[in-house]
Design a protein that fits this description.
With about 260 residues, the chain is mostly helical. Helix content is about 55%, strand content about 5%. The chain is built from 13 helices and 2 strands. Strand 1 (about 140-145) and strand 2 form a beta hairpin.
Length: about 260
Amino acid sequence: MTFKEYLLKEELSMNTIDVYLRTIKEYLKMFNNFNQKQLLAYKEYLMNNNKPKTINLKIIAINKYLKYKNMSNISIKTIKLQRSNYLDNVISKSDYLFLVNKLKKDNIKWYFIIRYLGSTGARVSELIKFKIEDLDNEYFEVYSKGQKIRRIYIPNKLVKETKEWLVKDNRDSGYLFLNRNNKALTTRGIYEMLKWFARKYQMNEKVIYPHSFRHMYAKEFLNKYKDLALLADLLGHDSIETTKIYLRQTTREQQNIINKVVNW
């Protein structure tokens, strides 16, 4: 069994698998084998050249590979992340509405992709699996880690609007969002197109990426319905502590508060 087959068996997302495979390739270009000294040298290299989250992601990849090779006795520890007191690079509701209004006139398929990202809180890896048949239920079921079933609810107004679009598009089954070859869109394809639209409409590229809309969904949900436990369930978080980040302001919101409050 190859390492890729091993990861697929663990039902990791293709994005995660790609990162893990690239990490092992990077390591093997630098070192000829796995031992504690070389692992620590690679960790030092990561700490000098990567952001904290990337460092931990690559360390997890290395440890996963060591487990695959039955070498877990020389695994390395992840670094401790300092909890941020703000949310960064999150699209505002006004920018979200600006984008969907532009796309409604220019590109109806991508209008709906943005609407679903912003109105369901779905991860992009989940969105590409949505099927037309799910619209009648007004929810889509996914299996999260630990084989837990999570429902991603679709607002009924969005369901109705989507069905009207599909009638015009002459489709009644299969994946909801297709590429030019009538196959399901890929996460990378969505990411790249969002950056293209950001440039086209002269928007801040830093806030136009798939997960940004999930963050916005969470922020707007808590603004209107302050039930943190429910939001944790909707987002598929294992711990409510993870969800608490959405109680924090974005950096722009913090700046606006400072501008309003600090007048001495």
